[in-house]
Design goal:
The protein is α/β, with parallel strands linked by helices and 290 residues long. Helix content is 41%, strand content 12%. Pfam families: adh_short_C2.
Length: 290
Amino acid sequence: MTNDLTGKVAFITGAARGQGRAHAIAMAEAGADIIAVDICDQIKSNKYPLATPEDLETTARQVAEAGRRCIPVRADVRERGELRTALEAGIAELGRLDILVANAGILPMALGDPHPSDFVDATDVDLLGVMNAVAVSINHITDGGSMIITGSTAGMMPNTTTNSVMGPGGSGYAWAKHTLISYVEQIALHLAPRMIRVNAIHPTNCNTHLLHNDGLYKVFRPDIKDRDITRADAELAFAHFQAMPIPYVEPEDIANLAVFLASDKSRYITGQQIRVDAGALLKFPSGPVG
């Protein structure tokens, strides 16, 4: 049996690459048309490179290759007006909205040059960006629709992203992701009379640019000080984070769950916090040690 999304339209933020692109392709393969939004620009405090306009066009092309329509739009999730304009442009072309995937996120890390604005940047994207996406969607999404929010298993743990090495940006990421737990439960309650489901997916380490960058490698391997840290070095530490012996999950693992939550098969599942974490929170309920 498949999770059929035929005739549905999905609005996806952070869609140019990583988890957002995986959501777009998986939902297109299940039959949905896509409104794909990404900032396609750099945020100064975020040290690893963010997506480019070419990345967003690649997402649009791959959706088209799956046989569905894609409306790619550059917009900043921190700006509600930009998101509203992007969504309304997509609806004008595709005619409706059934699914929201509020996925855009960043992890600014100071690594020796902390600044309070790093906290602001992280929370503006990771929390306010989600709230903006919900706000602009709420009057357009069909009754019986689905809202899917990207959280974080690490954000559920003490002493992970809040450690001092990651600075204010890491703290902002953790606070935003943790706050989304109660936000999802509240908005799910208020949208329940319209049969709209709202659920959060909390990934563990995921094979994206947010994980694979020099800054995060240094966080995971503070023991290496005399040379550059390689991906292979970091993956040894990544594997320690999960109960299952893997360094990370793939974006497609998250998208598989999102397609189910977007489909009518999940029609009575709402207000849930669902981890795709290979047992990470079971292994480290109080945060990783050692």
